[in-house]
Automatic annotation (TrEMBL):
GO terms for cellular component: cytosol; mitochondrion. It comes from the Eukaryota. Keywords: ATP-binding, Glycolysis, Kinase, Nucleotide-binding, Transferase. This is Phosphotransferase.
């Protein structure tokens, strides 16, 4: 209650606020219950299709360790721009990169899928004419695509689009293999590029962190949404039939958890009326339940719901609101972050935001109001951070990665929330500490994954090449060769691989 301590709020108002604060508080026992439920839902998602979280097998079976080499193409499609990157892995945890952005117009986003993929192929073609990648006639560049839309993956380079999101609505795409559509478009243009890997952004985050750090147990995103990917033992992925895997059975596979859907059945996370209102008014009621308590898209809206409730109860702004406060999603999470970043006693930034961004009349904003708004941001963000720690703890438990040694446990992260929200990591660590113990929490290294969508996609293309080689050296394996070593050596430095040679 630190923000409210120095206010002149009357006891009734204080009690009113404390009652709300208690609803956002997660005690130790609740956090333990959430962790246990995570492990239960992980197990269910790994054993059956159609569960939530979906626990999507990605068919990525190798994580990089920083020694990888080669030149790859990476594409990143998902926002306003299409990004084409040439990524050269130097093999000493270093990377050289060169990239161009191509605008994806509204017409392309909502027109025929073939036009969209033709445009992507044209962009790749244009990029290659400007980039300096020496290739001989029969060499092909391997391409990784970071595709931030839901797909059902059946191989590292195959995945059917389930649905578009984020303003994309191109026709004749849903149900089709994204990689095939892209490969067809490249082939029509005679662009010598092989679509090798379809990579979710969390998987890219995991791989990028692994390359720069030498290892990584989890790639986690706390941005507009939240999600995580980790390395699972194949034998735990019960739903994946061995027939579904081409080539030798791997020991491990990266799983894209889609943990935003954790607790969709609403069993363990205590919900407030503010969460219920958000959910009811969302485009996907009852879905992405965990994400709705955690991510950038929603935190501001939860705070807005609290503040409106306080306005309606004449506890805030003398019962006055503004057009912005009355607008759905009218209070962005970035504003919360800015408000909490300001350490001044009087909350200068908070006042400026309320008056300049949120349209409140300065005369209607009292020091008590400032304290209440700061308090509202804090209780919502603290709960989000603590809940985020539960997912990290769940992965540490699930993978047993901290057992039997005293090494670092590496977690790669991405997203504005974890990067910029003041105290978010501290809050995450507070629940992590409770759930995995201080020793493991201290050994957990949480670091930004550098350009997961660019470097991660390139590493995905390398993993694909690596796996392809592994299938080819299978007969040699029986002659007693160490597969991993052979395939790594085969893959290194041959991003621009003349595969035809080695097959023959
Ligand atoms: P994306 O997840 O789409 O790749 P980001 O990681 O940048 O993009 O996350 C965007 C989300 O983060 C938005 O919901 C926005 O409200 C929120 N956000 C933007 N800036 C900040 C900030 N400084 N602090 C906290 N959250 C922020
Ligand atoms: Mg992002």
């Amino acid at each position: 209650m630190s923000y409210l301590a120095d206010t002149s709020l009357n006891p009734a108002a204080l009690e009113f606020l404390e009652r709300i604060e208690r609803q956002f508080h997660l005690d130790d026992e609740q956090l333990q219950t959430i962790l246990a439920q995570f492990l239960k839902e992980f197990e269910l998602g790994l054993s059956k299709y159609g569960e939530s979280p979906a626990m999507v097998p990605t068919f990525v079976t190798h994580l990089p360790d920083g020694t990888e080499r080669g030149t790859f193409l990476a594409l990143d499609l998902g926002g306003t721009n299409l990004r084409v990157c040439q990524v050269t892995l130097l093999g000493n945890r270093q990377v050289e990169m060169n990239q161009s952005k191509y605008r994806v117009s509204e017409a392309l986003k909502t027109g025929e899928a073939e036009d969209l993929f033709n445009y992507i192929a044209d962009s790749v073609d244009h990029f290659l004419t400007t980039a300096d990648i020496p290739l001989t006639e029969d060499e092909q560049l391997y391409l990784g695509l970071t595709f931030s839309f839901p797909v059902e993956q059946t191989a590292i380079n195959k995945g059917k689009l389930l649905t578009w999101t984020k303003g994309f609505a191109a026709t004749h795409a849903i149900g089709n293999d994204v990689m095939q559509m892209l490969q067809d478009a490249l082939d029509r243009r005679h662009v010598h590029v092989k679509c090798a890997a379809l990579i979710n952004d969390t998987v890219g985050c995991l791989m990028s962190r692994a390359y720069f750090s030498g290892g990584c147990i989890l790639g986690a995103i706390f941005g507009t949404g939240t999600n995580g990917a980790y390395v699972e033992d194949m034998k735990a992925v019960k739903k994946l039939s061995t027939d579904a895997i081409d080539g030798p059975l791997p020991d491990k596979m990266v799983i894209n958890t889609e943990w935003g859907a954790f607790d969709n059945a609403r069993k363990v996370i205590p919900r407030t009326i503010f969460d219920n209102k958000l959910d009811r008014e969302s485009i996907n009621p009852r879905f992405q339940a965990y994400e709705k308590c955690i991510s950038g898209m929603y935190l501001g809206e939860i705070v807005r719901n609290i503040l409106l409730y306080l306005i309606d109860n004449s506890i805030l702004f003398g019962g006055n609101s503004s057009k912005q406060f009355n607008t759905h999603y009218g209070f962005d999470t970035e504003l919360m972050s800015n408000i909490e970043n300001d350490q001044s006693d009087e909350g200068v930034t908070c006042r400026a935001i309320l008056t300049q961004k949120m349209g409140m009349d300065d005369k209607l904003v009292s020091p008590n109001d400032i304290a209440i708004v700061r308090w509202g941001c804090k209780i919502v963000a603290t709960r989000a951070a603590k809940l985020s720690g539960c997912a990290v703890a769940a992965i540490i438990n699930q993978t047993h990665c901290a057992e039997g040694h005293e090494d670092f446990v590496d977690v790669g992260v991405d997203g504005s929330l974890i990067q910029f929200y003041p105290g978010f990591e501290d809050g995450l660590r507070s629940s992590l500490r409770l759930l995995v113990g201080e020793n493991v929490e201290k050994r957990t290294r949480i670091g930004l994954a550098k350009d997961g969508s660019g470097i991660g996609a390139a590493l995905g293309a390398l993993a694909s090449l690596h796996q392809e080689r592994e299938r080819q050296v299978q007969p040699v394996l029986q002659a007693g060769l160490d597969t991993a070593k052979a395939s790594r050596e085969a893959a290194e430095g041959v991003g621009k691989a003349a595969l035809a040679d080695s097959i023959a």
